[in-house]
Amino acid sequence: MGTKNIVWHDASVSREERNKKNGHESFVLWFTGLSGSGKSTLANAVSRKLFENDKQTYVLDGDNVRHGLNNDLGFSPEDRKENIRRIGEVVKLFVDSGQIVSTAFISPYREDRQQVRDLLAEGEFIEVYVKCSLETCEERDPKGLYKKARNGDIPSFTGITSPYEEPEDPEIIVNTEDYAIEEAADLLIDHLKEKQLF
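User: That's the sequence. What structure does it adopt?
Assistant: Structure tokens below.
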């Protein structure tokens, strides 16, 4: 696939104009962590708080995206990489549109998360490590996936038969074993206020 005959068209409305009209910067909150750590729940709780404070916000959830945009991908390392690459390009468009976009993807590989960070300008990628022990995630097992993985029904499952590479220097770590979701969401909102992004 080549792009030599494809020309990028600049939009008639700039991101800066959108941000000014919205009254806030646009960026991504990239929630990463094991299945069952609370990524989706936390991303949605934060999005609700942003929305209630008149911010333009949207959540891209891993399962939802795999129902549509990425329904042709499996869970091999190559497909996981492509899943995150595509999401990175979508996130870039959302940020350009003036949104605060939250993503809830396991995104197990550091290299893939860095690739998305590199697509965006400085300060637009906020990595949120939703930390939770494997044991607690297995106890929660909201979708019954760990049980299936332990039974051999899911061949490549992060944390069991496939690796998860913890972030080395995330912007924020939220341990969902220490905080209830509402408390964790408030921690994130406070972080955004400190950074003058809220």
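The CA atoms of residues 25 and 196 lie 9 Å apart.
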